[in-house]
Amino acid sequence: MSDAVGVAVLGGCAAWSLISATARAGRPEGVLLAVLAVAAGYAGGRIAGGLAPVATSCAVAAGGLCLAVAAPQAVPAPNTATPLGDAGATAALLVLSTGALCCAAWAARSRRRRITLHLLSAGSVVVAAVAGSAAGAVASCGVVLCSLAAARLRHRAAGLVGLGVITAVVAGLGIALADGSLSPGPASFLEGELSERRVQLWHRALDLAVADPALGAGPGRFEEFSGVSPQYPVPDARPHSAVLQVAAEQGFIGLALLTAAYCWLLYVLWRSTRSTPVVLAAGAALTAVAVLATVGNALSFTAVTAGAGLLAGIATAVPLGDEPPDDDEAAPEIVRGGLG
Asked: Of 46, 124, 233, 296, which is the most buried if we count CB atoms within 10 A?
């Protein structure tokens, strides 16, 4: 059932981008590539995670760290050299790597390996700080703390609902800031943190969404209607908010499909047969990526969307062997069938 829902949701995202592009002479290639990357990553994670959960998680973590730190220009995306171009992608890749290491730690069979892998996940926070990614360091630290806290959480549903609420609150704050409905104090603080240019882009994206709520301006056409002052050039033709970009280019139906895709990820994590700590560690990392995507263009990078699919697939895979037994220092129980 969960796989069928995923096929329907991802298929709907791809189909609607084609419909919107046909009606508005848009360019749906970016949306289609992102959907394909998520689907391929999810399938690959399910297969490899079932065969070798720990090794697969470690390989994903190593790949993400190498792309984020050693070769950031190798990340396929538009104009990765701009300040707004690679900052979100670097942070997202670091977060996904941290989440993968936490999943590997909880999938390990010995306590020594669990401790070692958790120390490595904490080390990724230091790597993010050294690499100059403040957002990546903060988000990675949050993932590690959530992973450790998950050891004592007996019901995964409450944790996943909490993660969903966090994403909804951040997205709502972004929309309120773009709409100008926030009080002057918080609005000034957020605008100072996010930059005037980004907030200006958000204002225009929301105007486009309201002007054509059904179909939007068309995928890939934001730059044509942005109306941004020449002193604030658009580095990669995006408003740097996945929520507002989809609303502006594909209307509120596209936004509803994007929301459904995120809810589907939380749903398959809830239904996963993996242990609760594995599920919540992956959920925390995916939520951190979702939060970064609401204030940046992280989802414009193929490596990020594929990595998110890989991590979700690993956390929902069915291992060929039994999961390692949980003890008092780990999770108090293994939740099967999402009944926790």
From this structure: 124
- State the residue for tokens 């895709």: 261
> Among 212, 210, 166, 173, which Cα is nearest to 189's?
173
Alpha-carbon distance 218 to 245, whole Å?
Answer: 10
Distance CA 230, CA 283 (A): 40
- Which single residue is written with the structure tokens 């230091």? 126
Q: Which two tokens stand for residue 305?
A: 């969307």
pTM of the model: 0.88
Cα 171 to Cα 222: distance, rounded to the nearest angstrom: 19
What the block records as the tokens of 197 is: 């240019």
125-164 residue pLDDT tens = 998 888 888 888 999 999 999 999 988 887 899 999 999 9
Per DSSP, 67 falls in state I
Region for residue 133 given its phi and psi (left: phi exceeds 0; alpha: psi -120 to 50; beta: otherwise): beta
Give the whole-angstrom CA distance, residue 261 versus residue 13. 8
CA distance 215 to 17: 9
So what's the pLDDT on residue 79?
42
- Within the chain, residue ranges assigned H as helices are 2-24, 29-51, 53-65, 83-107, 111-130, 134-149, 156-179, 184-194, 196-211, 222-225, 242-271, 276-294, 302-316
pLDDT tens for 167-177 read 999 999 999 99
Residue 340: predicted pLDDT: 42
How confident is the model over 9-54, as pLDDT tens digits?
999 999 999 999 999 888 898 899 999 999 999 999 999 998 999 9
Secondary structure letter of residue 53 according to DSSP = H
Please state the length of the chain: 340
Rg of the chain on CA atoms, in Å: 19
Written as six digits, the tokens of 178 are 């773009």
Q: Kindly state the percentage of the chain with pLDDT values over 90.
A: 52
* Coil vs helix vs strand at 129: helix
Please check whether residue 282 is in contact with residue 314, taking contact to mean a CB–CB distance below 8 angstroms.
Answer: yes
Distance CA 193, CA 175 (A): 16
